[in-house]
Amino acid sequence: MTNFSFPEFDALSVVKGQPKGCLWGYFDVDSQKDQLGKLVQKAKDEIQTGTHVQLDWTLHNIEFPVFGRIPLQHTVKDLAEEGFVAFDDVIFFNSQTSSQWDSLKHFGSQKTAVYYNGLTHEELKASDDLGIHKMCDRGGIVGRGILVDWLSWWEHRNPGIEPPSAISCHKIPVSELEATLAYPGTETRQGDILIVRSGFVRWHKYVFTPLFPEKDDKPDNPSFNSNAKADIRALGFEKQHYMIGLENSDETVRWLYSKHFAAVAGDTMGFEAWPYPEHCCLYEWLLVQWGTPIGEL
């Protein structure tokens, strides 16, 4: 598959009712094709060792799903009553509570109530258009992934200093994304899958465990037990909705557009810094304006 030829951001045609930079109708007019069409076969040439890397979390990892979502409910059914020496797993969960891809149906324009390619909320409510199954039908998401390990880059630049809190609205600017890419010499290509590591998963795993214990005596405090860890996780997920992520700005929007990623992903619940400002929501640009799936955690 050859690369697409995209116009410059400012040269994009104006779509009525949408901000400058909208890509509706670029890939097709029936609302189903999206940025995943940019995944190229030559990405297979990057494979060197064939080593598998597990990126997703287990379903039960997050104790306190955000925004009132239900946690995983898992029971094991004994089939002895049906005459079998066997067990079944019975699972009930919200897919947003662990590692997942946001489909183009997940999030719409909050002001205009439309989704990718102009489909309305009511139209999607009555159909399966733009659902996550569309990604599965095409064979899943397989491509050249590039890791932007911002956390490691930040700690290398700031030795001995705690990084910005994962449960703060710390905004990672384009300049630091570029610096992180340059550190190992990574070059981006059209159709890449951008993966950003900001430290949210590490915070969740080691909450209340300082990175530099010699500067903090909290680990010796008996009150710092599993219940205390649960309390601080609850604070980070249920009682406040602050998350580290990409800066919500016009500069970030233009940078993402210029890179023409097939998909983006990160180790947080929201990819962009949360809460987002009224004037710029990366969710809306990625999912609604461009048809770019977002992977989380």
Automatic annotation (TrEMBL):
GO biological process, one term: L-tryptophan catabolic process to kynurenine
Molecular functions (GO terms): arylformamidase activity
Family listed: Belongs to the Cyclase 1 superfamily.
This protein's name: Uncharacterized protein
Annotated organism of origin: Fusarium circinatum (Pitch canker fungus)
Lineage: Eukaryota, Fungi, Dikarya, Ascomycota, Pezizomycotina
